[in-house]
C-alpha cells in the first residue's frame, strides 16, 4: 500500500565485510541509496526515454556556470584563454544519467538489494502494517506482475523500521511496539527511529539549522518533478496517512542499495546524513489536506534537532552494519559455493552440451525472445548469471579484485555463449574493476571498454548503454591522462539522435584537447563550436552561448574572418534570444566592423540581423536617453574637415565673388605657405612693419594637414561647416537619412553641457565612398540607418586622433598621438565680415594689356571694418590708381589722353614726375576707401586696373584682402579673405631696344645742348600667335623715363606716322635720345601719333613703376647672388681694374626706360575690340640690346659652376670698355676738288672732334703717324700724309669736347680713308699708361677730285 | 582533386584559402584552422636537432568523415594544407606530395615578387592559377 520513498544516498566512512575466503575486506565510503518503490506498470521504453531526456535536459539547463567564478586563465603559445575548468553541468548530467538508467536484466548493479519497511507509530496496529507491507513486497518481487523494480537476490533483506514522531504519538507505545518487533524480526532486523523532537513552529521563529538535506535535494526535487507524474494517483492517498507537520515521513517500503563506482569517486564526504525528507512541493499541493500547513517548501528538516540527526545517522549505521553488510556477505558466500560446486561438472557439461546441441540451442532462445537480436537472453535466475551476480556484489562492497576475476570469467562464458549483451556488460565492469583496483597488478584493459562500447552500440543497438560505457571509459582515460584517446572516444559517441548528449560529449572532448600536454587550442575551439551548435539545437541556449564565447577567444583577431564572423553571428543571435541585447549588439557590431570577406547576401543578412536587434532594443525603450553607437558606416575621422565660414554669394549677375577658401579645394602645403607669407606681409604692414609675436595665420578650413594644436576661433553667429567622410565597408548599400550633428556648448569654466541637434540632411544613399557635409559641430553624428524598411536611429562619435608625435625620444619609442582640436572651436565676439566681388574681371589678357575692372567691397556683418589692405603674389598685375581720375572713366580707353596737333619733327614734351608718387611699400597695397572704414551693410566699388603679365602662359594670381574690426577684438585681431585668379596671358608684341652712339658730328645737330646724341632703336614685332583674333597692333606712343636721358626726337625716314603691325610683322623705330639736364627723376614722353597719352598719369605710370620695382627687385636679387658667388671664388680684382671698369661702365651707362604704348584691334565674337597695353624696356648700356620679353634662359645658376676665377675676365674687360671712353669724329668735306695740275700738293683741313663720354678726366694721345699696320690700308693711304703736328697730348675734362684741326696732304686724286689717326686714352689719375686705342672702325672716306684745268 | 587549399602564415593566420565553391566555405575554414593543431604537434614532435633535416611534408594530418587533411610546412614555418575528399581514393601519398611541391614552388615565386609584402594575403594570379589547376582536376 505504501509506496512513497525518495532516493537518498548515504555514505559511511568505514565498514568491513568478509570475502568468501574469510578475509576481511574494508569498505570505504559506502553509500546507500534509498528509493521509493515505484511499481509503474511497465512503461514503454520510448516514453521512458523521453522523460529521461527531459530530465537530463532540465538538469543541464539548471546548472549554469556562475559568473566569473570558475574561469581560469590558460596560456598556451600565443593564446590567452579564459576557461572554465570545471563543467558542473556535465557532472550533473552524468550523475543523473547514471541514476536514471533503467535497471536492465543483464546486470544487477542497480537492482534493489534490500527493502526497508517503515510504519508510523501512530498506526493503530503497526505490526499488522508491517505484515501487510512485507506481503506487498513479496508480491511485487515474486508475482511477476511488475517488471520495474528489479531485485538483486530472490530473498531480499527486509528491514523493519518503526517511525516515531516525538511530538505526536505516545513514546511508550512506540517502545512497546519496538520490543514486539525485536522479538519478531530479531534485533538486527528492525529499528525504532524517533524524530521530530522539535515542536512545529512557524519557520521564522526557528533558529537556523542548516538544512541537512540541502546537498541532496535540489537534484531530487527536479527528478521528482519529472518522475512523479505517473504514479500520482497512488501516492496521493498515502500522503494523507503519513504526513505529519512539516516533516512528513515518507514511509518507504523498500530501500535499495545502489552504489556506483563513480559516485564513490566523486563524493567522498564522510558522515553524511540520512535523509528522509519531505514530499516535494508538487506532491504536496496535489494533496489537498496539507495545503493549510505553513509549507516552507524551501526548507527541510525544520523539525529535526541535532539529536534527531544523530538518531538518523545511527539508524542507517545500524541498518548497514547489522543488516545489509552481513546479508551481502552471506550471499557472496552462497554464490561462491554454488559456483565452486558447479565448476567441476558444469564446465565440461556445458561445453559438451553446447557441442552436441549448440546448433539447436541458440535459435530456440532466439525464437522465444524475438526482441533480442543480439544473442541469447538468459532467464533472471539462470545459472550463467550467478557469477555475474556475485561479481556485482563484490563490486558493490569494493572487493574489486574478486569482482574483476568474476567479471573476467563471466565474460568468457558469455562470449562462448554468444550472449553479446551480457558479454559487453561483463567487459565493461571488468575494465572498471580493473581500474579501481588500487595496486594495479595488471594494466588497465582499455580494449575491454572499446569492445564493450562497440558491442553495445553495434550489436545491441543500445545507445544508452554505449553512452554509459563511454562516459565511464572517458572518465577513466582522463584520470589516466590519456586525453586524446578520451577525446576520440567522446567524439565517436556523438550522434544525430541526441543533441544534448552530443553537445556535452563534444564539450568534454574539447576540454580534453585543451588539457593535453601540448594543448590543442584550435581543436578545442572547433569542438567547442560544434558543441555550441549542438547545444543550441538541444535548446540549451545559455550553454551554446558559453561555448561560442569560449571558442571565440581562439578565433578572435587572427585573420580567420569567415569563422570569426560566423561565431560572432551566432553569439549575437544567442545573446539576443537570451535577452542580452547588449552582447548581441557587440557581437554584430564586430561583424560589421571587421573587414568582411563575406558575400553581399551574407553581409546583408548580418546587417539585417543587427538592425533588427537595435530596433527591438529601441522599441523596448532601453537607454532612452542616449542613442546606440552605430558601427557603420566607417567615419574617417582624420579626414574630417572643418570650415569656418559663412555661406557666400558666389556670383551675382556679372559680379564674381572672391574665391576665398571652400571645402571644394584640396589642401595644398605650398599654397598655404604662400598664403601665410602674404598674411605675414599684411599683418606686418598693418603693425608698422613688425610682425607681432603671437601671430597665427588664420585658418578657415581645417583638415588633417593643418596645424590643429590650437583651438580654432569661430565667430558668433557664423556657421561652422563640418565635412565628414564616410566609407561603407560592406558590399550592401546603406541608406542614410536624417543626418544631423550633435554638439555641446560649454561656457567658460561652467561646463554646462547641452546637446542639441541641428540641421538635417535627408536621404543620402552611400554606395561605397561618399563625403557629405553637415553643419555645426561637434560631438558625434546621429542618424538613421535603413535597410529593407528597418530604420534605426543611432549615433557615431567623431573623435579625431592627432598626428603621431615624433619629436622626443619617448615619442619615437612609443606610439603617442598629439591633440587635435579641430572640433573644439572657441566662439568669439562678433567680427566684421567682408565680401569682395569683381566686375568685368578678365580671364585672358595679352601680355602687357591694360584692362580696367571693378572691385566691390561689401561689409556683410554688423560690425564696421577698417584697415583694408591687399597683398598679392603679383603686385605688378593690378593697381587701384594713385588718384581719382574722373576724366578717363567715361572714355573707352584706359588711358588719359589729350589731343595734340600733328606736328612732325616737333620736340617731344617732357613732364616731370616724382617716382615716390607711384611707389608702394613691398607687395602690400592699401586700398583707398573713403573714410577708411566700411560701415555695416555698406559696400564700395573701386576701379581696378589690370595689366597682363609680361610672360605668356597661365598665371595664378593670389590676392589676400586684409581687414580688421574698428574696435579691437580680444581674440581675433584681423580677418583675411583670399582670392585666386587665373589669367591666361598671350603674346602681344616683342619690343627690343638698343642704343648706340650716333656717329654724326655733334655740330650737325641743330640744337645740341651738349654732346651725347644717342640713337635708340626700337624693334617692335607682332608675336601674337593667334592670327585670327588679333588683327593688328598700332604703336600709339613711345615714352621714356630716365633720370639722365630723354627721348628727343623720332627719326622717321619715311614720314610714316601710322605704325601698324599685323601678324608677324616687324617695325623698327628710331629715336634720338639726348642727355637731359634734370637732376630729378623725369619722364619724358614722345608722342608718335595724333593723340597724346599722359603716360605719367594713373594706369600707365602706376604699372610702369610697379614693373620697375619688381624687376629691380629681381635684379638686386640676381646681383647679390652673383657677387656672393664671385666673392667666394677668389681675391677681388685689383684696384686699377675696378677703377677703370667703373669709369668705363659709367660712360656706357644709359639707364633709359622706354614705354611702348600700343593698341590692338581684336575681333571677338564678331565684334571689333580695341585693346590697349604697354610694354616696358629698360635700356641699361649702350650697345646692349634689351627686350621686353624676358629671356627664357637665365644664366645665374650656371655661374656657380665656373671653375676659373673671375680675374682674367675682369682684366680684359677694361680695355674693351675703355675704347668707348673717347668718341672721335672726323669732320671734313666729302669731296674736295683740287687742281693737281696747278699744285701738286693738296691740303685738306680735317677737324677731329674728341669728346669725352665719361665723367672722369682723360688723357688722350692722338697720333697721326700712320704706321701701316694692316695690309689693307697700305694701298689706300700710301698716298696721303698728315701734315703739321702729328701728335697731340690732351687732357679732357668730364664730358669735354675738343676739336683739333688737322691737315691732310694729298698728292693725287682718289678716294682716301682719313680714319687713320690713332687715339689713345687713359684716365688721368691712372699712373700707368694703359692706353686704349679708341674706335677706328669705320673708314672716313674722302674723295679728292682732280680739277680739270680745262674746266677751270 | 583537392577541395580546399590553404596557405597559413607563420603566425597562423591565413594568407590564402580557397575551396571548391560548391561546398560550405566556412566548414573548410574551420577544418583548416583545426588542422593547425596537428601541424604544430607534428612539427614539435620532431626533435629540435633534427629540425633541419625534417621533411617538409607532414602526411595525413587527420581524417574526418568526409575529408582527408594533408599538411606541409616550409622551413619558414608557413603551412600548406590540402583537404581532399575522402571518397577520392585514387590519390596516393606521392601525388599529394607532388601537389605540395608544386604549391611550394609557386609560393616561392610569390615571395620573390618584389611587390609582395610578406605577410599580406596572397593575391597573385599565377598562384591562383596553380591552385585552380589542383582543384580543377577533380572531375
UniProtKB/TrEMBL annotation, chain A:
Pfam families (alphabetical): Ig_TPPC8_1st, Ig_TPPC8_2nd, Ig_TPPC8_3rd, Ig_TPPC8_C, TRAPPC-Trs85
Q: What is the taxonomic lineage of the source species?
A: Eukaryota, Metazoa, Chordata, Craniata, Vertebrata
Protein name, entry field: Trafficking protein particle complex subunit 8
The TPPC8 first Ig-like domain covers which part of the protein? 664-773, 782-846
**Which residues does the UniProt record annotate as the domain TPPC8 second Ig-like?**
847-977
Q: Where is the TPPC8 C-terminal Ig-like domain?
A: 1221-1322
**Which residues does the UniProt record annotate as the domain TPPC8 third Ig-like?**
980-1177
The cross-references to InterPro entries, in alphabetical order and at most eight, read: Ig_TPPC8_1st, Ig_TPPC8_2nd, Ig_TPPC8_3rd, Ig_TPPC8_C, TPR-like_helical_dom_sf, TRAPP_III_complex_Trs85
Organism of origin:
Fundulus heteroclitus (Killifish)
UniProtKB/TrEMBL annotation, chain B:
How is this protein annotated for GO cellular component?
Answer: perinuclear region of cytoplasm
Q: Which family does it belong to?
A: Belongs to the TRAPP small subunits family. Sedlin subfamily.
Q: What is its main location?
A: cytoplasm
Q: Name one Pfam family in it.
A: Sedlin_N
Q: Transmembrane stretches, by residue range?
A: none
The protein's name: Trafficking protein particle complex subunit 2-like protein
A Gene Ontology biological process noted in the UniProt record is: endoplasmic reticulum to Golgi vesicle-mediated transport
Protein location: Cytoplasm, Perinuclear region
Lineage at the top is:
Eukaryota, Metazoa, Chordata, Craniata, Vertebrata
